[in-house]
Amino acid sequence: EPVRYRSFAEFFDRRFRPDVRKFPSAPEEMGAFAEARYFGWRNVESGQKFPVKGHSLSADQILGSADRARPFAGGPVLLVRLAPVDYHPHALPDDGTTRDHQRLGRRLWTVNWHALQSKPDILFANERNVNILETRNFGRLGFVEVGALSVGRIAQVHPLHLPFRRGEEKAVFRFGGSAIVVFGEKGKWCPSADLIEHTQENVETLVRLGDCVATAGAQ
Predict the structure, then answer these.
(1) 195 and 38 Cβ atoms separated by less than 8 Å
(2) The model scores a pTM over 0.90
């Protein structure tokens, strides 16, 4: 925007103009909650390897406890990687309420593709903001924002004690790369077929904010 910036961090926190991005009106379609690079799985079982051989996507470790992870056993997962060039405010995927939340982790490692392949514990060692969301159309979601190298903080925008609406801004990653992991309940929704296909090929899919990334119901 044509204003005077006091720092590069202020320039980094850019916004789309109103109505540039829209979320799906169909209740069964989940809009992309971040403009970023997506992986998707129909279900992730205990011990399943991610996203390359020898690396595990553990709900227990990412969410911070086995009790918190239990509702998501055998359910779908989206992994979203935001590069520094991406739009770092991110949105809420549906109408609902926040049932539980916790800040975990400390050290900030980079989440670029090479780091994800070489350091298997990044997603549960980095600072992360764990949210358990109760949504109208997709059931309960484990929505985890993961900080990364040069991200000073994850700034919550929507008040955690208030109900939220689909497409409302949830939070902002401050300067740098970052990631979001979303766990779902078994049978409640499924990632889009193209995301699943590309994930099986170890290929990230760049998705625009609001474009459909999943559909309610078992697929």
Answers:
(1) yes
(2) no
Cα–Cα distance, 132 to 10 (Å, whole number): 30
User: What is the rounded CA–CA span in Å between residue 22 and residue 131?
Assistant: 24
- Cα dihedral sign, 187-188-193-195: negative
Answer yes or no: are the C-beta atoms of 37 and 81 closer than 8 Å. yes
User: pLDDT tens, 133-145?
Assistant: 999 999 999 999 8
pLDDT digits (tens, 9 = 90+) for 16-67: 778 889 999 999 999 999 999 999 999 876 655 555 333 456 788 788 888 9
Geometric angle at alpha carbon 87, from 69 and 118, rounded to 5°: 55
Angle value at C-alpha 38, between 197 and 68, nearest 5 degrees: 105
Q: What is the 3-state secondary structure (H, E, C) of the chain?
A: CCCCCCCHHHHHCCCCCCCCCCCCCCCCEEECCCEEEEEEECCCCCCCECCCCCCECCHHHHHCCHHHHHHHCCCCEEEEEECCCCECEEECCCCEEEEEEEEECECCCCCCHHHHHHCCCHHHHECEEEEEEEECCCEEEEEEEECCCCCCCEEECCCCCCCECCCCEEEEECCCCEEEEEEECCCCEEECHHHHHHHHCCCCEEECCCCEEEEECCC
